[in-house]
Structures are given as C-alpha cells and as structure tokens.
Amino acid sequence: MNKDQVKGVGEQVKGKVNEVVGKVTNNPGKELKGDLQQGAGKVQKAYGDAKEDAKDRAKHNAP
C-alpha cells in the first residue's frame, strides 16, 4: 500500500464524517464538503492503486 492509497482512504473517511455531520446538523455546505472530500479521496486512492498495479506488473515482467 502506498501513500496515495492511504491518503485517499483517509480523505474518504473524513468526507463521510463531514457528510454525516452536515446531514445531522442540517448544514448543506458541510454535507457538500463531505461529498467532495469523498470524491477526491476516491480519485487519489484509484491513482495509488494504478501505481501499485504498474509496480507489480513491472516486477513480474522483469527478466
């Protein structure tokens, strides 16, 4: 697991917390912030996943 995967998951968790807090407190701005954080976290984790896949493929294809 690389740092992009870890940071991505962390952003998703923070985003979910903000989304729930926004819903509970009836704060649409906080809820939107949470949604955006979750989206950014998913993108960062996907980038980290792609880097890991590329590293694994290079390792397996090396002579």
UniProtKB/TrEMBL annotation:
Residues 24-63 are annotated as: Disordered. InterPro entries: CsbD (IPR008462), YjbJ_sf (IPR036629). It comes from the Bacteria. Residues 4-56 form the CsbD-like domain. SUPFAM superfamilies: Hypothetical protein YjbJ (SSF69047). Belongs to the UPF0337 (CsbD) family. This is CsbD-like domain-containing protein. It comes from Paraburkholderia domus.
